Amino acid sequence: QVLSFCRILCNIYIYIYIYMCCVGEENWLDSRTVYIGQKEPPPGAAAYIPQRYPDNRIVSSKYTFWNFIPKNLFEQFRRIANFYFLVIFLVQLIIDTPTSPVTSGLPLFFVITVTAIKQGYEDWLRHKADCSINECPVDVVQQGKAARTQSHKLRVGDVVVVKEDETFPCDLVLLSSSREDGTCYVTTASLDGESSHKTYYAVPDTKAFRTDREVESLHATIECEQPQPDLYKFVGRINVYKDTEEPVARPLGSENLLLRGATLKNTHHIYAVAIYTGMETKMALNYQSKSQKRSAVEKSMNAFLIVYLCILISKAVINTVLKYAWQWSPDRDEPWYNHRTENERQRPVVIRAFTDFLAFMVLFNYIIPVSMYVTVEMQKFLGSYFITWDEEMFDEELGEGAQVNTSDLNEELGQVEYVFTDKTGTLTENNMEFIECCVDGNVYVPHAICNGQILSAASSIDMIDSSPGGYRRHEDLFFRALCLCHTVQVKEEETVDGIKRGFHQGRPTSFYISSSPDEVALVEGMKRLGYTYLRLKDNYMEILNKDDEIERFELLHVLNFDSVRRRMSVIVKSSSGEYLLFCKGADSSIFPRVVSGKVEQVKARVEQNAVEGLRTLCVAFRRLSPDDYQEACLLLTQAKLALQDREQRLAQAYDAIERDFVLLGATAVEDRLQEKAADTIESLHKAGMKVWVLTGDKMETAAATCYASKLFRRSTQILELTKKRTEEQSLHDVMFELSRTVLRQRSMSGWVQELIGGGLLSVDCLDYGLIIDGATLTAVLKSGPEGNYREVFLEVSRNCSAVLCCRMAPLQKAQIVKLIKASKEHPITLAIGDGANDVSMILEAHVGIGIMGKEGRQAARNSDYAIPKFKHLKKMLLVHGHYYYIRIAELVQYFFYKNVCFIFPQFLFQFFCGFSQQPLYDTAYLTLYNISFTSLPILLYSLVEQHVSMDTLRRDPSLYKDITKNSLLRWPVFLYWTCLGLFDAVVFFFGAYFLFDNTTFTSNGQMFGNWTFGTLVFTVLVFTVTIKLALDTHHWTWINHFVIWGSLLFYVIFSLLWGGIIWPFLNYQRMYYVFMQMLSSGPAWLSIILLITISLLPDIIKKVLCRAMCPTPTERAQVRLHTLTHIQIHTHGCCKPD
Fold first, then answer.
1. 695 is in an annotated binding site
2. Is 423 annotated as a binding residue?
3. One of 139, 422, 518, 767 is an active-site residue; which one?
4. Chain segment 319-357, per-residue pLDDT in tens
5. Which residue ranges does UniProt annotate as crossing the membrane (predicted)?
6. 390: annotated binding-site residue?
7. Helix, strand, coil fractions of the chain, as percent rounded to 5
8. Fewer CB atoms inside 10 Å of the end CB: C or N, the chain?
9. 422 is catalytic
10. Which stretches within 135-219 are classed as H helix?
11. On the CB side of 352, how many CA atoms lie within 13 Å of its CA?
């Protein structure tokens, strides 16, 4: 009893201790406790509560063997079109309908089967990938030695041994490493694309456990948050139990967590404990699909379907009403050849009318093209390969080409009106080069060297002596600050061309790696100025000063960079025992915290560098007394031990520590424009797109980049909507002043356009550019008492050719895109970026494109499309987007057109058969029309058609304007195609009818029957719609000829076989010899040729007249291309040798 009482007291003590460590964290509902090695804590520790966690099995597949059929069918019949055809098929089974259930069931079965096979194959590939991952071998420490097991058998708490170049099987917390300092190097290329080596750390209390037996003897528990998908956030705490001692609590953060999918590098082996397994790993939680985006074409297609559904219902209602009106007379009610049964006479009229209505719905249901959906899906899926196969979009440096993450938005690439782009890494290379630094007004340029001495490029160039006699305190502190305030790693070049190299001419041959290119550029710049960062060893940072002396600084704390603070700091201890806090960051985050230093001189130089387009950082320092240091340590330790609100507490601690700075100076780094970035933006402007640059950089730097990239021209009138201006004037006054400016320009635009047309004025005179910063945007988006500024801002930006948004937070980027999307024009937007801070706007835009850049692959992974460089956007939109839209627009309109041609004769036929629901076409023709006879030519057209050449589209970006705003799927175009289909249907039916009327068609005087009449109409129909597509084709290849003429030949051969053989499985032979008898008649041949010609003539005349009287820019380009081709052929023909 005494022992039990002591254990209870110990548990109470432990809980009080934990409570003291985490004030305000009484309820840990969102945490878990992990027992390392599956071992119970030692006696006297907290009570052992075993918890159940999922195994390490990864499941990315959607179906299983047992649920594939029901689940896939359920998902497919959730689509309205599929469900509609299922209802029609069931109606045909239930009631007596004029057509066989096969006519609806077979096309529906074909569509469902093709889709199921495609989805099943994709899921089978996912199953294979899952099995290869789940069966990977893994080493687990069991009973003091490493045992080999399979990955899916791992459990939370198992201690895993991972060797160099192996991939982490689950999310692990690092316990120890083969390195003495307890660190390991990791690449996360498979997670975020960053190929640089990142450093991860073991806590001091576990890094000494470096063998299997030592790890087995470790008694510890880990308390951490429940799984969540943020790759860069982890909050936890490890409690290490030692003999007769209280447990030692150490904070755990993202620097201790090794993520599944990352790879161990430059470290022989590590020991780590499994913390999240299986579908709870961060990588698995990021599998969740993005919200579904729908293209404008898909929305138009659904609207057209609703119209045709209304037409279908109208046809059925009209025929039902007319049937009963025609049969009102008793002699027509029961003709001699169709007496009704007694049951039919006794049925109520309402039920009979409803049954007839359903029968007419079945008869006319083919006006809704069921095969259009599967054809569109196949077109999108197969068409997306043209992007991935494009060799011009392959980057040799990356060794990768463009990627398509979703094929549902291919045609949306041809509808873009607004382009939102990031600056750093998207417009620029994100390949930083150190240009200069400024210390107390003196400017240092690495290349300005005279007689071995560095020259200062200040207003009066002074020669800085490199000898100790010319030693300047602030300059040395500045150089040391940049050598110490970073997270750069040093990698030794151990082997080069098979030769082991450690030193070159007495100096180490090493290079720097970091996740931030800015940091590498700054450290390399310091090396060129005489201060070399050597290494971080045993928590000591070593630098080689300009006197070739090695200086050692103990690294005490790192205050990591974040996008909110926009700065980072380190606390170090010099060899003399002095505590120093070095900080670097954006000028806006440093200057307000400076209490001394030559602020005005440094600020002037920063502004000058920003105007020149250079990226600037300010550097400051603060000396800490021992008491200051102890206070800072306490703040940081309490914040890091917190399990809840750790980020907020760290931010508060950083804010309290990073103050009272002495300004040392500033740096300038150049980020060059990407190749052909300016040409790409200029082409997008000519294509009618408005380009917005959204960046976190300061205004001057971003503006200089905009001028260099030709977003702004020298003649562009810049309108500023910035915090500086709103401090001078109220936001209300600034907004309405800008509004008056653009409205005045709009009112003048009429006579200005006349002057431009007369050549008296330049187009650039109408050019406006807007610059807005993040602080002002926040105020604009909030509706104040003085009015709603959103509409005013939209009105101003709408009249600007380009907009620059600077000092933008990631969320603000998404807010800008959302604001434009929701404006009254509802324009199609595209967002392009390369970093994690661009993901929000990429997901928000209609089309998101990720750059495979140096800031990781988060943007590429979350985008709809990924390209290696910004320059590839030009071809992606102006060529691929243009083609995709033209092709799918023709596909959609053509499908509706050919189905109107198909069904309207059936509707007309009812007026001549007493509305008896007699089908005009044979069952085989009804079934195969959309599946076989007319589907393949339009599918091939939608894949390979090029109405103008690629070179023409690249040379003349203005052709893009012809297809924007969904121009080919507007209602007038839709009505034209529908009316053309109705005209052709009338020609088919009445042309055949009048030719049949009182005419002998066979040599023996025999008249053709109704099946011959229907076959004649169907033959004219198939040939007309196929030749119509041939007339619309501009780009002919051998495969076009094969498919188009092959489809017609297939129809003829099928008809000959279908009507030339008595098929034993059919209970009727109504088509026997019908097709051959029709072809044996000369008038039938004449009628076929004549009706095809009459049907195609209006469309041909319309095209000729439109091209002659009011040609579009695209049609002019086609004429120029044909003319040039004929000239070249004629020239080559004349120049042939005899």
1. yes
2. yes
3. 422
4. 889 888 877 766 665 555 566 666 766 778 788 888 888
5. 303-326, 357-376, 924-944, 974-996, 1008-1031, 1043-1066, 1072-1097
6. no
7. 50, 20, 30
8. C
9. yes
10. 189-192, 212-216
11. 13
